[in-house]
Amino acid sequence: MTPIDLFARALHFQPEGTVRSGERRMAAASGGWQLATFHVDTDADVHADHWEMHPSSEEAVCCLTGSLRLYLRPESQGEAETAVRLTAGTAFIVPRNRWHRIELDEPSDIMSIGLRGGTRQEPVAG
What we know:
Layout: E1 10-13, E2 19-22, E3 33-40, E4 50-53, E5 59-72, E6 82-87, E7 90-94, E8 100-114, E9 120-123
Antiparallel strand pairs: 1-2, 1-3, 3-8, 4-9, 5-6, 5-7, 5-8
């Protein structure tokens, strides 16, 4: 029995009740929920210049260490982004189909839990 390095692998939770260690899949459908953990040092590590959206599920974004800001894209033109500050030990649940992005306040460890099928990204308009 070997421990699973959560910073190198993801956990995939299948509908029939099995849990497997495997490759992190940021956009591919794995047939179940994925738990992935990342150590991030810079905004480039979290693709701060891109919005992301998950149509298959809500996503739990958990800040394990450090601090970050999670931004929700406005739902109507002319509205401002909504910012949620996460610090060590806090989480936010991003609604299904809601565009979001992350910026770091400091290097952080982040955990993400969600279904990845159909995930989309698009650049932040400059």
